[in-house]
Inverse folding.
């Protein structure tokens, strides 16, 4: 058996732990740059607010209804997520952290009372961290996910105990809600009259194999209760890393876009070094605001192959600025820029280039020191001059809560 | 680019259960000469995290503002270690929420009635009544004072 543990309205719940006055009030958390709603309290859902809804054209509605608005505080959410996982690992040793607010538990071998275990996990996580969770249990990961949706509607715990329950659940699950079925497949499946997860299980194996390859077959078996997807206990190193963000304010000046792009590159390089990877490919892109059709639109990207695979910030920034100069065009108001490093490989297997004059060992030492300093004293304490101060393009995070658990100067204040 | 952005997943690494305080590595690596006689007796250096924290995932820190608890040894500016997982008992120093604000007081039960007791004669005890909104957020396990 597998369990899927999902933190309820996770980002909102994190805000509520440290700001309990928010209990019972409608609360939303906005995405980076305060663009869209990405987490809603139950009260906010009742007001009809939708997931991914842009907040800027709803400001009046939000204010009129007393909705409390927060910018996303990923530093806080990341730490709270780790606390939830730590607590879960006190109960079950095989855990797959699936996302910031979801984890799969492998319950194989557990012979006790599942209901009791779930109650104990739920109350311990709540007591330790203040975060409410829901648990869905099923014979496969795919069914555990579906059970979790059911848990949300039935008091926080749902356990699939027999085939009859599975059958009832999958008849009520729209096919697009099934784990692994993307929007593309859902569209394709409509042609075969597949509306629910149950309809999907009636499809012929041969048809599934031709239309959806092995994935389709695997999903079908999982829905029928045969486990085909195991827990991923080791996080594989990422194959590509991207940093893309919208600017706080639109800008047409190359200088500010250069600052932003350099900062995004530095972020990517840090992540490369953290997983001991080097990149072979570098992509830079910029675009204007697609939501404003009255403005002239422009978007362009440029990808280059690096002469030697690297994770050196200075080198990557140098090449990214060459790319940027090539794609930048005067006279547009840019809204977003991004950097992608791709073709990653292990640092220890760098293909040497005979024309390479860089002392790579020395550079590696340098960035190790810089990474250590920045870890200790805060992000970007040591940075490249070209990154600038970010005042013109940095994210708008106007309603950012404090980093209560990771920064001494921002811890909880208690009145005595 | 749209699809690429959607594929970016937050990568939460497994939490580390080890403390951040670096441990001394007592291992003499002298190729010539005598090995250190201390090698066989090395122990890890004392770690305050291990002494003061029993449940790391439930431990939070807070700074004190105000003087209502001075007689309990809790003064303005002190650092509190709070364990959210501990069950408060009669006499526990607790961080509670009164009307949406964090407050530290001592929990006391007198004649079947709970009170939040200040420890400074200039402040009044707070009677916990069903109608006022009081929640106990965590139990204070240690107070850290700065003496320099």
């Amino acid at each position: 058996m597998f369990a899927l543990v999902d933190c309820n309205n996770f980002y909102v719940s994190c805000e509520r732990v440290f700001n309990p006055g928010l209990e019972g009030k409608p609360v939303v958390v906005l995405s980076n740059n305060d663009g869209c709603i990405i987490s809603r309290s139950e009260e906010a859902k009742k007001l009809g607010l939708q997931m991914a809804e842009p907040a800027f054209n709803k400001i009046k509605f939000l204010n009129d209804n007393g909705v409390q608005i927060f910018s996303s505080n990923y530093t806080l959410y990341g730490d709270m997520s780790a606390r939830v996982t730590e607590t879960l690992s006190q109960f079950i040793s095989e855990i797959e952290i699936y996302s910031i607010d979801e984890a799969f538990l492998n319950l194989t071998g557990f012979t006790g009372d599942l209901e009791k275990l779930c109650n104990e996990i739920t109350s311990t996580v709540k007591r330790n961290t203040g975060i409410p969770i829901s648990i869905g249990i099923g014979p496969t990961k795919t069914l555990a996910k579906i059970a979790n949706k059911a848990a949300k509607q039935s008091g926080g715990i749902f356990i699939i105990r027999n085939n009859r329950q599975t059958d009832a659940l999958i008849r009520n699950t729209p096919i697009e809600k099934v784990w692994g079925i993307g929007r593309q497949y859902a569209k394709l499946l409509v042609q075969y009259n597949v509306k629910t997860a149950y309809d999907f299980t009636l499809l012929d194996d041969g048809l599934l194999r031709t239309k959806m390859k092995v994935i389709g077959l695997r999903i079908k078996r999982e829905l029928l209760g045969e486990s085909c997807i195991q827990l991923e206990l080791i996080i594989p190193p990422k194959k590509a890393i991207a940093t893309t963000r919208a600017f706080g304010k639109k800008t047409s000046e190359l200088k500010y876009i250069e600052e932003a792009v350099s900062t995004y590159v530095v972020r990517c390089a840090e992540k490369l070094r953290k997983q001991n990877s080097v990149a072979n490919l570098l992509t830079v892109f910029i675009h204007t605001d697609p939501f404003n059709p009255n403005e002239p639109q422009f978007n362009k990207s440029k990808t280059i192959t690096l002469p030697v695979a690297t994770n050196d910030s200075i080198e990557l920034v140098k090449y990214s600025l060459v790319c940027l100069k090539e794609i930048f065009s005067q006279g547009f108001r840019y809204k977003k820029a991004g950097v992608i490093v791709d073709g990653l490989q292990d640092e220890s297997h760098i293909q040497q280039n005979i024309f390479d004059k860089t002392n790579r060992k020395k550079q590696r030492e340098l960035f190790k020191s810089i990474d250590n300093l920045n870890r200790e004293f805060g992000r970007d304490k040591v940075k490249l001059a070209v990154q600038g101060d970010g005042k013109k393009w940095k994210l708008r995070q106007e309603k950012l809560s404090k980093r209560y658990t990771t920064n001494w100067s921002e811890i909880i204040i208690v009145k005595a | 680019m749209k699809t690429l952005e959607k594929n970016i997943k937050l990568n939460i690494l497994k939490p580390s259960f080890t403390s951040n305080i670096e441990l001394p590595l007592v291992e003499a690596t002298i190729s010539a000469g005598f090995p250190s006689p201390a090698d066989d007796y090395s122990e890890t250096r004392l770690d305050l995290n291990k002494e003061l924290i029993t449940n790391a995932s439930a431990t939070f820190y807070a700074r004190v503002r105000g003087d209502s608890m001075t007689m309990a040894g809790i003064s303005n500016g002190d650092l509190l270690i709070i364990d959210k997982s501990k069950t408060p008992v009669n006499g526990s120093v607790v961080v509670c929420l009164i009307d949406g604000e964090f407050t530290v007081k001592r929990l006391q039960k007198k004649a079947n009635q709970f009170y939040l007791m200040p420890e400074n004669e200039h402040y009044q005890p707070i009677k916990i009544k069903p109608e006022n909104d009081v929640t106990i957020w965590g139990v204070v396990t240690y107070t850290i004072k700065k003496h320099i």
About this structure: Residues 89 and 107 of chain B are 7 Å apart (CA to CA). The beta strands of chain B are 59-65, 79-83, 93-98, 101-110, 113-117, 126-127, 134-144. Chain B touches chain A at residues 1, 4-5, 8-15, 17, 55-58, 60-69, 74-76, 80, 82, 84-85, 95, 97, 99-104, 118, 135, 137 (CB under 8 Å). Chain B has two helices and seven strands.
